[in-house]
Write a structure and sequence with these properties.
This protein is mainly β. The protein is about 0% helix and about 45% strand.
Length: about 190
C-alpha cells in the first residue's frame, strides 16, 4: 500500500515599519517573507523553496544555484538538444523548458544564470553564455538531435530560443551527492 502525502504551504508576511534599516518602503510598509528551507531525511539543508507543484519544487541553494527537485529527492530531468546527430556535440536546453524563465515579460527572455539542469542520463549542466547582471539571454540556434529519455535519441532539426550548457557536478553546484527522502519543509 502506498501512502500519499499532500502538503499545503502558507507563507506568513510580516508588516514592518518603513523606518527599519536597509529596507525600501512600499506604501509606508515593507513586506518581509521568510523562505521555506527544504531538508532531506538526514536533515541536510537543500536550499530555500521558491515554488512548488504536485511533483516538484524549485530550490535556490546556499551556493546561489537554482535547481528543480522532485519530491522523491531526485533532480528533475530535462530534454537536452544537441548540435550534432546521435545526441552528441554541444548540449542545449530550450528556453521554455526552464522553470525560472521571466514569465512576466515574454520579450525579456532572460534566465537566471546560475540554473542547474539535469538530463535523463544523470548528467548535470549549468547554463553557459554571455551573462549580464546575473542573467543569460537565449539565442536562436538550430539543434540536430534531442534526448527525451534515457533510451532514445531523436534526430531532426529543432530551432528556437535555446541556451548552451556546460558540464558541471553536484559538488560544484552545491547539491548533495545523496538526497534521502522524505523531504521536509521548515518555515
Amino acid at each position: 500500500m502506498k501512502k500519499i502525502m499532500i502538503l499545503v504551504f502558507t507563507f506568513w508576511f510580516l508588516g514592518c515599519s518603513s523606518d527599519d534599516a536597509n529596507k525600501t518602503p512600499v506604501n509606508e510598509t515593507t513586506i518581509v517573507a521568510q523562505a521555506a528551507i527544504v531538508r532531506d531525511s538526514n536533515q541536510t539543508a537543500l536550499g530555500n523553496m521558491l515554488q512548488s507543484s504536485f511533483g516538484s519544487m524549485l530550490i535556490l541553494n546556499s551556493a546561489g544555484y537554482m535547481y528543480k527537485l522532485n519530491w522523491n529527492g531526485q533532480l528533475a530531468k530535462n530534454e537536452i538538444y544537441y548540435s550534432e546527430l546521435n545526441c552528441i556535440g554541444t548540449p542545449y536546453v530550450r528556453y521554455f523548458d526552464i522553470d525560472n524563465f521571466n514569465q512576466s515579460n515574454i520579450n525579456d527572455q532572460s534566465i537566471y544564470s546560475k540554473t542547474i539542469i539535469s538530463d535523463y542520463l544523470g548528467n548535470i549542466y549549468k547554463l553557459s553564455g554571455i551573462e549580464e547582471s546575473g542573467y543569460i539571454t537565449p539565442v536562436a540556434t538550430t539543434a540536430l538531435s534531442l534526448r527525451r529519455d534515457s533510451f532514445n535519441c531523436s534526430s531532426g532539426l529543432a530551432g528556437g530560443k535555446i541556451i548552451k550548457l556546460e558540464s558541471t557536478d553536484r559538488n560544484s553546484a552545491g547539491i548533495p551527492d545523496t538526497i534521502t527522502p522524505p523531504l521536509t519543509i521548515e518555515f
